[in-house]
Specification:
- The protein is α/β, with parallel strands linked by helices.
- The chain has a single domain (1-95, 156-167, 187-307), classed as 3-Layer(aba) Sandwich (Rossmann fold).
- The chain has helices spanning 16-31, 52-63, 86-98, 109-115, 168-171, 186-196, 212-221, 252-257, 262-273, 284-289; strands at residues 3-6, 35-38, 102-105, 144-147, 153-158, 162-167, 175-178, 201-205, 228-232, 235-236, 301-302.
- The strands form five sheets. The protein has a three-stranded antiparallel beta sheet. Strands 1-2 form a two-stranded parallel ribbon.
- Helix 1 packs across helix 9 and helix 6 packs across helix 7.
- The chain is elongated, with a radius of gyration of 20 Å.
- The two termini are 37 Å apart.
- 38% of the residues are buried.
- Bound molecules: glutamic acid.
- Glutamic acid (GLU) binds at residues 7-9, 41, 190, 204, 208.
Length: 307
Amino acid sequence: MFRTRFAPSPTGELHLGGAWTALASWTLARRARGQFVLRTEDLDGPRTIAGAAAQIVDDLRWLGLDWEEGPDVSGPHEPYAQSERSAHYERALATLQEQHMLYPCDCSRAEIAQVASAPHEGEAVYPGLCRDRDPRRPMKRPPAWRVRVPDRIVHFIDELRGPQTESLREQTGDFVLKRGDGLYAYQLAVVVDDAAMGITHVVRGDDLLASTARQIFLFEALSLSVPRFLHLPLVLGPTGERLAKRNPVMTISGLRGAGIAANAIVGKLACGLGLRESDAPVAANDMVKDLNQWRWRAEPWKTPATW
Ligand code: GLU
């Protein structure tokens, strides 16, 4: 069964970038007569905003999207909120632990930064300080758990970007799966959940392209089947600036409040994605019905200054 998902973090309102990803992922599932899953990625408790998850559900429905499984409709793979799925993540950690792939790390950010090579995509490459530590050495702080990455190049084909390669050792180093404060890392949770929920196609923004090699490595280490990946170009503001979550005209509820119709937003997003030529208003369901051949657009899309 062809299954895609949308996995928003409820750290703010649904903005146009989220709606863009959701529409693309939903369209692929509907087009393939597959299923679409909504999953709330609320692992980062302190950054989660009360009520944001419910607002995202409401905005997605207002846009005309629907899903077979999700936090508000339940389904065979519940729960659909990551904050309730710790048992799954613990089991995955235990599997890796049995293979001696994990080790505790009490390095501070400053210690890592001192020896780390040039940061990749804003993240420092972990230089392996705790990889071979003497287990008798006391921990300076509650440790994070890192996974040992092999000296290996991961190859994959992105459905939009084409062939990709990444050296785990050189570009990320051993990465964190559980933080010292007990939070599970995105990289672990997303892999465990995409596998558990039977996701066959991961559709998401370009900003996560650099995470994909780590995730493929984890799928394989956990003997889980690796989905296909499609990374969409970013959505920019009208003058080409990065979308700020706080800018109300860029949020779906801001546009709703300004009286913009859902069909107008769907029409513009679908055209920006390359799903249709015209950017005229259209209902999401009608857009899928009319969809024949399309070509994803690879370049970033600037949101219109006026709707
Ligand atoms: N929760 C992530 C976000 O909102 C998306 C993760 C993913 O699609 O893999 O940015």
